[in-house]
Write the structure tokens for this entry.
Amino acid sequence: MSESIAFALVSPDRSLFDEQVQEVTIPAETGEMQALPLHTPTIAKLGVGELSCTLTSGVRKRVVVSGGFVEVLPEKVTVLVRTAELPEEIDTKRAEEALKRAEKMLLHPDDDTDVQRAMLAFARASVRLKVARHL
Ligand code: ATP
């Protein structure tokens, strides 16, 4: 039985992972999905959230992602993301400010408020703070 699966995670400006892993847990738009070796082929849209993988050493890695696509094949998972940050890269002050702006828009919407957009900004900032704080 296969014990690992190839995992590639690429953002518009860099490659964050390109290695064998035990599993990848992906925040798909429709909910969380886990890709294990020999997974049935699938393509899904990514939502906003935390993607995590377990390296062959057993170490777990977390990344905040927003938007993109995932392709799962029996021996390879490929994730193309709009944005990706490792925990140590997250600027918590910036995320706190983004959270406050989004909260303000959602609590006091006016005719120009794009509620859907504000909800996505809120979700991005919230998950950035959660992962940066190792919660
Ligand atoms: P902001 O309003 O602070 O720009 P945002 O959620 O609108 O936040 P995005 O459009 O998701 O930002 O991201 C734009 C770029 O900035 C991406 O490269 C993303 O990785 C990076 N980025 C956004 N917020 C942070 C953060 N708090 N710390 C580090 N990088 C961030």
